């Protein structure tokens, strides 16, 4: 058997993930972005609270500001005016009250707010239903956030709540880790020729991989479709000139005579660092380098490209963004399906949660027949389940681990 027809032994998922991550480096450069564009980015530095908040005592209720224990005249206090949020601080004369709105500055001399519903206002005077205590319904200066407290950790992904918190602190721009630069291309003479005879199909991997990469926090250059032509592939790879942190390709990576990716990468001056994983779908995935660029070549079958993106490319993007990476399949579940299988490759299965649970964990229904060419099972899938490599049979009720799709993971 020639070297071409004797493939290397399969890597297991863990070893392949370690290799994928080792081929990319955490990005050291930071850039400053307006707060409005910071959601989803990774903070390059810790942001501490520039001051304590609230900056001054404020009312927490619509009601009346007064001095607790002020006996008033005959048990009533005159209402000496109104103070609303955004107005300058007022002073309260002894024995009086001021109508106050939520968020308004507590008047000097007042120490409590009595909510509207706990008062009776009559003829410009106020009677309390219950006596007030000092501090009632007052948001004390400094009580909600200490000066110097952490608003955002270095290395944290900025979430919408951080955007609100930073805005509340008057922070309008933020240093974030530069996005990883990805180039994404598809290979195949059949692609993009749909409508021109049955031999053509649309390119579905490229738009899907671009969407996945952008959702994971990368900046993507769309490198289009390349023909099944080794020389064209070599020329294109050489022309990339190392401008990407990671090149992601799909197709042409299996065993056939038209699977030019591996020889083309080597002919272009690159190296193959690992090829083929004990995974179904996704076996022919390849990891390599091309100068300063890491190369991850995904299988052409669309479901295999989707699965290998989640396992390996997402881990590489997280590594470049300096984010921690946890294995994908961590949530416990029970199988809601049965079947004999050939051991030797871990199997990733699109699944949907049924209505039932066993001891609080969901029972997962399998979608699709296990082919790697169709994305159709993903239309209704809640996530992906992992069937361990050594099993020769999976039974209803067996323990599994799965990855539940999030709306915008990370
Ligand atoms: N003799 C062997 N043949 C195959 C093996 C093997 O071990 N020995 N492995 C099989 C496995 S597993 C997979 S997965 C596929 C993957 O092969 P490639 O990565 O070389 O992919 P292609 O042959 O280029 O394409 C496979 C299939 O997917 C369609 N495709 C490709 N790109 C796209 C795209 N961008 N959008 C939509 N569809 C795409 C393509 O038309 C093919 O139908 O190899 C097996 N063969
Ligand atoms: O690994 Mo391939 O993706 O099984 O079909």
From TrEMBL:
Annotated family: Belongs to the MoeA family.
UniProt enzyme class: transferase
Family matches, as CDD domains: MoeA
Annotated MoaB/Mog domain residues: 183-319
Cofactor names: Mg(2+)
Pathway(s) this gene product operates in, as recorded in its UniProt entry: Cofactor biosynthesis; molybdopterin biosynthesis
GO molecular function annotation: metal ion binding; molybdopterin molybdotransferase activity
Species assigned in the record: Cereibacter sphaeroides (Rhodobacter sphaeroides)
Full protein name: Molybdopterin molybdenumtransferase
Isomerase in keyword set: no
Catalysis performed (reactions): adenylyl-molybdopterin + molybdate = Mo-molybdopterin + AMP + H(+)
Family annotation (InterPro entries): MoaB/Mog-like_dom_sf (IPR036425), MoaB/Mog_dom (IPR001453), MoCF_biosynth_CS (IPR008284), MoeA-like (IPR038987), MoeA_C_domain_IV (IPR005111), MoeA_C_domain_IV_sf (IPR036688), MoeA_linker/N (IPR005110), MoeA_linker/N_sf (IPR036135)
Pfam families on file: MoCF_biosynth, MoeA_C, MoeA_N
Biological function: Catalyzes the insertion of molybdate into adenylated molybdopterin with the concomitant release of AMP.
């Amino acid at each position: 058997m020639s070297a071409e027809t004797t493939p290397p032994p399969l890597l297991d998922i863990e070893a392949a993930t370690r290799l994928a991550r080792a081929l990319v480096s955490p990005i050291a450069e930071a850039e400053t972005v307006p707060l409005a564009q910071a959601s989803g980015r990774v903070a390059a530095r810790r942001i501490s609270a520039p001051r304590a908040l609230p900056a001054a005592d404020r009312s927490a209720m619509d009601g009346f500001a007064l001095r607790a224990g002020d006996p008033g005249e005959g048990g009533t206090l005159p209402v000496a005016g109104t103070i609303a949020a955004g107005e300058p601080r007022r002073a309260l004369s002894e024995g009086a009250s001021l109508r106050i709105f939520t968020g308004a500055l507590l008047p000097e001399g007042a120490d409590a707010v009595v909510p509207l519903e706990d008062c009776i206002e009559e003829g410009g005077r106020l009677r309390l239903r219950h006596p007030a205590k000092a501090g009632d319904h007052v948001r004390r200066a400094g009580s909600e956030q200490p000066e110097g407290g952490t608003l955002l950790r270095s290395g944290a992904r900025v979430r919408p709540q951080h955007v609100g918190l930073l805005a509340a602190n008057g922070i309008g721009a933020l240093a974030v880790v530069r996005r990883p630069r990805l180039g994404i291309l598809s290979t195949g003479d059949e692609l993009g020729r749909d409508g021109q005879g049955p031999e053509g199909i649309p390119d579905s991997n490229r738009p899907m991989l671009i969407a996945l990469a952008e959702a994971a926090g990368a900046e993507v250059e769309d490198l289009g479709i390349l023909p099944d032509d080794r020389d064209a592939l070599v020329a294109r790879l050489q022309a990339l000139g190392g401008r990407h942190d990671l090149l992601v390709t799909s197709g042409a990576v299996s065993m056939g005579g038209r699977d030019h990716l591996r020889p083309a990468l080597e002919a272009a001056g690159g190296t193959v660092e690992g090829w083929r994983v004990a995974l179904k779908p996704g076996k022919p995935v390849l990891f390599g380098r091309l100068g300063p660029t890491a190369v991850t070549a995904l299988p052409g079958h669309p479901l295999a490209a989707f699965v290998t993106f989640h396992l390996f490319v997402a881990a590489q993007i997280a590594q470049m963004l300096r984010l921690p990476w946890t294995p994908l399949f961590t949530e416990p579940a029970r199988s809601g399906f049965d079947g004999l299988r050939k051991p030797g490759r871990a199997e990733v299965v699109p699944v949907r949660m049924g209505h039932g649970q066993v001891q609080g964990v969901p029972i997962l229904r399998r979608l699709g027949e296990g082919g790697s060419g169709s994305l159709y099972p993903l239309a209704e899938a809640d996530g992906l389940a992992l069937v361990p490599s050594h099993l020769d049979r999976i039974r209803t009720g067996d323990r599994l681990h799965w990855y539940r799709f999030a709306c915008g993971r990370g």
